[in-house]
Write a structure and sequence with these properties.
mainly alpha, about 75% helix, ARM-like, TPR_rpt, TPR repeat, TPR-like_helical_dom_sf, TTC12 protein
């Protein structure tokens, strides 16, 4: 065997491949000469004679012998091709094959012994000695795959990755499905940061053995992590280089802007260049560190920014300043705070909103919007003169349709923060504002409408604010107007607004208010209509509103029962989600309590009350309590108790009536239902007795009498 450095040589590679081809040819000839088919034997014999007579055969054999040391079939004793004896040739061929096999066995034993010595050296950490032993083994048996992979592993330990890859390639020539070769080669490529080649090696492992999927995934994850680490380091280096250049450029531009007695267009141009550099986290930091927010100390810049009546050049400079501040403050609360700390900025921003120049107003609103995005930003704005801001913002809302949504959104954010900070001082204003926003729905500003209602729904979580909103008749009237609009299928853009209004109503309904009482029936009727809506969120919230509002008005109950609410609730209990089902059973409980028609409709739609029995198996105590209450109401109807014979109702009610539920109503409602069941149909007592529940039944009767 040639030294390791020569294994990659093209001549050695060609010689090795030629050697393997000739071994295959000899094997095929032997099989042909031994074939029982005479035609095959004759063909093999002719091919053998032909090869022996080829003039290049001896030369080729001689060339091969110099490198590979092959054993050749001795044909010197043959007088000529015509005198070759077939039997003698076959015997010589077989003898040669046996000699080859013996030599291979002997070389394999030597190679295995050297492999073991190499393994011992490897385990001892002497990787150089291990490589030497594996190489000696390959001199004995050059096509032994294990020696190549073991030596590749040793090369890997010594960080000789190219040699490891070469050995793995030789191993794959010996065995194309060698998993170890692909594994080590993948590791070597990874060390060389050849990420695509490394992945390909691991992918080949899975193709060979799909059971190695877990190992493959671990290896691919390792490649991904290493690739990310390298890229992060490269990016960090690039950013550091770019940051150094940006810091220098920012410093130079700020110096130019601070220089006095320049033309106004000179400052505008440099501010625009500065904006391009500041538009990232690194640039924002350098801008702040180089005192960029003191830019208004330049009298020319400050004069243009604060001028009441601005020339075209001053407008350009003012817009450039606003864009610069947007770039410096985007997502950066430290910079936002520093900007508002500049006296001229805090006083001039409200004036810019009302200056009448659309470009300045638009960019000012965009800057304010950055503050409205976060709670801390909202708090910063609240510390300003908010009444002046609100006055200006409302004027803009009415005057500039093109960007009214953004103005309203920011205004609502600031109002919300003010109400959170100052208690109830703005409660009345908030109530008036919600009325104004709701009424504006006809003006085509649905995005602002939904945004405003959602914000106020969150604000209504405050107890005092919620109480004041609940007292406003104009608020409830506006809510009803918006709910009416949802019935127009050609206006799907109102769905988001209706969803928000229903959420707001849900927040306000727990408040005790005489004003709410006046609107229970119309609200119930609107929500009943919304139960047919295609939007599941609207259906759920409409059901939720019904579950709260109906208890305040028997008249409302009768209206919705006539409208088919019982059938709707049963449908939701069968196919609805957990939240919708919770609202639905609560609504049924309210309806069956005050309406005999509701009880009759429930029994008509579900004769064996299977829906209620299923709900009694729920883990949720509120659901169980409401289901038991509905059942107790239905048991007042003739035939209802008899319809439950043979069901699991007794077992379920006994479990809840005598159980350890945290909510007392679960026990009481189950006890009442059990008592009424046995009074209405005495045959149920037999089941109670079989379940040893007579003691529970006796205790239940007190609830039945009191009910």
């Amino acid at each position: 065997l040639c030294p390791p450095a020569m294994l990659r040589d093209q001549d050695t590679e060609a010689d090795f491949q030629r050697f393997l081809r000739r071994v295959d040819d000899v094997t095929n000839l032997l099989q042909g000469l031994n074939s029982p088919d005479s035609a095959v034997r004759e063909k093999a014999f002719a091919e053998t004679e032909k090869r022996l007579q080829e003039p290049g055969a001896s030369r080729e054999e001689e060339e091969s012998r110099t490198t590979v040391n092959r054993t050749l079939i001795n044909t010197s004793g043959t007088a000529g091709a015509e005198a070759v004896d077939a039997d003698g040739f076959l015997a010589a061929l077989e003898k040669d094959a046996k000699e080859r096999a013996q030599r291979r066995r002997r070389n394999e034993q030597l190679a295995n012994a050297l492999k073991e010595k190499g393994n011992e050296a490897f385990r001892a950490g002497d990787f150089a000695l291990a490589i030497q032993r594996y190489s000696e083994g390959l001199e004995k048996l050059r096509d032994k795959q294990e020696l190549y992979t073991n030596r590749a592993q040793a090369y890997l330990k010594l960080h000789e990755y190219e040699k490891a890859i070469s050995d793995c390639e030789w191993a794959l020539k010996c065995n194309k499905n060698c998993l170890k070769a692909y594994f080590i080669m993948g590791k070597a490529h990874l060390a060389l940061q050849h990420f695509a080649e490394s992945r390909q090696c691991y992918e080949q492992m899975v193709l060979i053995d799909p059971q190695k999927q877990t190992l493959f995934q671990d290896c691919v994850n390792e490649v991904g992590l290493e690739e990310k680490r390298v890229r992060d380091e490269e990016r960090a280096e690039r950013e550091a280089q770019a940051g150094s250049a940006a810091a220098l450029s920012i410093q130079e531009l700020l110096h130019k802007i601070s220089s006095p007695d320049q033309d106004i267009t000179y400052y505008t141009g440099n501010i625009r260049l500065l904006t391009e550099l500041v538009n990232n986290c690194t640039g924002q930091t350098f801008f702040r560190m180089n005192n960029g927010f003191s830019i208004l100390r330049n009298e020319t810049v400050r004069g243009a920014f604060c001028a009441e009546s601005k020339s075209p050049a001053e407008v350009e400079l003012c817009v450039s300043l606003l864009l610069l501040w947007q770039a410096a403050c985007a997502g950066n609360e430290v910079n936002q705070q520093l900007l508002l700390a500049q006296p001229d900025v805090s006083t001039q921003l409200p004036e810019l909103l009302s200056c009448g120049t659309v470009r300045i107003q638009r960019e000012t609103m965009a800057l304010i919007g950055l503050y409205a995005e976060t709670k801390n930003g909202q708090r910063m704005m609240v510390r300003q003169d908010l009444s002046r801001w609100m006055q200006i913002l409302m004027a803009i809302v009415k005057a500039i349709v093109a960007w009214v949504d953004a103005a309203e959104n920011n205004m609502l954010d600031l109002l919300g923060e003010e109400s959170l900070q100052t208690g109830t001082t703005l409660s009345t204003n908030v109530a008036l504002l919600i009325t104004h926003v709701l009424v504006k729905a006809e003006q085509g500003r649905q995005a602002a409408l939904a945004r405003g209602v959602s914000m106020l729904a969150s604000l209504a979580e405050d107890v005092e604010l919620r109480a004041q909103l609940a007292q406003k008749r104009e608020f409830w009237q506006s809510c009803l107007q918006l709910l009416d609009k949802c019935g127009d299928a050609s206006r799907p853009f109102y769905q988001q607004s209706v969803l928000a209004v229903l959420g707001l109503i849900l927040n306000l309904l727990p408040e005790s208010s005489s004003t709410i009482q006046d609107f229970v029936v119309p609200i119930s009727v609107r929500c009943l209509a919304l139960l047919n809506h295609q939007d599941g969120g609207i259906v759920t919230r409409a059901t939720g509103v019904l579950s709260y509002v109906l208890s305040a008005s028997p008249s409302a109950v009768e209206e919705v029962v006539k409208g088919g609410v019982v059938k709707k609730m049963l449908k939701f209990l069968k196919v609805g989600g957990q939240l919708t089902s919770g609202f639905a059973i609560k609504t049924l409980a309210i309806c069956t309590k005050s309406s005999s028609r509701a009880r009759e409709e429930l029994l008509k739609q579900d004769k064996r009350l299977r829906v209620l029995l299923k709900l009694l198996q729920s883990e949720d105590e509120l659901t169980v309590g409401s289901a038991a209450f509905c059942l107790s109401q239905c048991l007042l109807l003739p035939g209802a108790a008899s319809a439950l014979l043979g069901s699991s109702v007794v077992q379920l009610l006994l479990r809840h009536a005598g159980g350890d539920a945290h909510r007392t109503l679960v026990k009481e409602n189950s006890a009442i239902a059990l008592g009424r069941l046995c009074v209405a149909e005495p045959r149920h007592i037999q089941q109670v007795r079989k379940l040893n529940g007579l003691a529970i039944l006796n205790s239940c009767m007190q609830y039945v009498h009191s009910s």
